[in-house]
Q: What sequence folds into this?
């Protein structure tokens, strides 16, 4: 049995047998019940708001991670696309320089 039910029963039984004394006694449990219900609703509302904020923040973080991953992937694709021509150009420059050096050393 929940504690608040026990509390209500004790208040109701301790009020006496007169009908005039039942009215104030019944008001106290109703008032206590209303306080409990309002507090409980407030806590549930706060928990719902917290969960909603956490979900929103989680989605934003996921989107940021996906955007960053896409940028990194795109950067790698661009790098690999330009890497081969750059490497071939560098090799041809080095080959031309080595030919010049060999001609200068020979003649």
A:
């Amino acid at each position: 049995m929940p504690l608040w039910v026990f509390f209500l029963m004790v208040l109701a039984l301790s009020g006496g047998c007169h009908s005039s004394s039942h009215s104030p006694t019944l008001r106290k449990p109703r008032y206590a019940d209303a306080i409990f219900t309002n507090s409980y609703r407030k806590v549930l509302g706060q928990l719902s708001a917290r969960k909603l904020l956490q979900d929103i923040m989680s989605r934003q973080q996921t989107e940021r991670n996906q955007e960053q991953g896409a940028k990194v992937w795109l950067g790698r694709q661009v790098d690999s696309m330009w890497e081969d021509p750059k490497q071939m150009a560098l090799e041809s420059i080095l080959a031309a320089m080595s030919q010049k050096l060999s001609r200068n050393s020979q003649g």
User: Anything to note?
Assistant: Helices lie at 3-14, 19-106. Residues 53 and 59 are 10 Å apart (CA to CA). The mean pLDDT is 77. The two ends are 109 Å apart (CA to CA).
